[in-house]
Amino acid sequence: MDSLQWVDQTYLQKHKSEDPNTLRAMYYPNLRLYSTHGDTSKHKAPADAALTFLYRYSRRATMSLAVYMLSYLPYVGRFVLPAASFYTFNNAVGPIPATIIFGSGVFLPRRYLVVFLQSYFSSRSLMRELLEPYFSRIRFNKEQKRLWFHDREGLLFGFGVGFYVFLKIPLLGVLIYGIAEASTAYLITKITDPPPTPAYSDKFAESQVRWTNKHEFLRLPLANLDDHKMGETNEGQDLKATGNLRGKKFS
Fold first, then answer.
1. How far apart are CA 211 and CA 40, in angstroms?
2. Cα angle 67, 71, 74; round to 5
3. How would DSSP label each residue in 157-213?
4. pLDDT (tens digit per residue) in 180-238
5. How far apart are CA 154 and CA 171, in angstroms?
6. What span, in angstroms and rounded, lies between the C-alpha atoms of 49 and 237?
7. Is 128 exposed, middle or buried (0-12, 13-18, 19+ CB in 10 A)?
8. What span, in angstroms and rounded, lies between the C-alpha atoms of 154 and 7?
9. How far, CA to CA in Å, does 99 sit from each of 66, 91, 104?
10. Which of 81, 128, 200, 221 meets the CB 3.0–4.6 Å disulfide criterion with 196?
11. How far apart are CA 212 and CA 209, in angstroms?
12. Comparing C-alpha atoms, which of 11, 36, 37, 13 is closest to residue 24?
């Protein structure tokens, strides 16, 4: 949250000479008003939460071990890890890059594919951890959260895997994690809309499932990622009509 406040302040400082009515709304002032505990009546008991955690990670470990063991089968084993790579990356980066990964994986040694898949899943876990301050305040149900990540999967993978590589560096990794947290705060202002006050937040999570300005943002040159002269979607106009948001949806 401190990083998000710094992002808002930096944005205002950068555009201080411009008309305030054309600037995007701030994220930190409203987001800080949200409780990080949510509806306590819906919280799981510690034992149930522990069982859910163990089940989730034991299932992943079992699937990973099964795929690795199948890769030693005669004749077809050499295609198991490339096929798993294609299945994993198809949704994240699209069929063409996933096909290239599959074709390369047929000829690469097994250990490189294992490291490749490990990096992918580790970067996903890293992104979920970095985004936890946001999701602890903006309450998505399970299906909404799945769709939220799916709609941004390619960008989140590219963002997370870069930091994952640097986090593996001894000593330096601790410092990189702090940079990753600050960068995630900036990323939030690019892939979500400014939140309304908690009193008007009933339908906000649902409106954020789809990244409505994805194509406009991805077409921006790197030098102009802070471009705020973008149009609003109907959802943004509806939220502004309630008097909760001011300015553009994203910078």
1. 29
2. 140
3. HHHHHHHHHHHTSTTHHHHHHHHHHHHHHHHHHHHSPPP--GGG-TTHHHHTSS-TT
4. 999 999 999 989 999 999 988 888 999 999 888 887 777 777 767 666 444 444 444 44
5. 29
6. 39
7. middle
8. 23
9. 22, 12, 9
10. 200
11. 9
12. 11
Read off the pLDDT of residues 192-201 as tens digits, 9 standing for 90 and up: 999 999 988 8
| Rounded Cα distance, 218 and 99, in Å | 23
Longest CA–CA span in the chain (Å) reads 68
- Give the span between the Cα atoms of 60 and 83, in whole angstroms: 17
Contact 154, 95 (CB under 8 A): no
Enter the tokens of residue 171.
């000593």
Alpha helix ranges (H) inside the chain = 2-14, 28-31, 46-70, 77-93, 95-107, 110-130, 132-135, 142-151, 153-167, 172-191, 204-207, 214-218, 234-241
Q: Which residues, including other chains, have CB under 8 Å from residue 7's CB and lie 6 or more apart?
A: 27, 28, 182, 185, 186, 189
**Phi and psi dihedrals of 63, rounded to 5?**
-65, -40
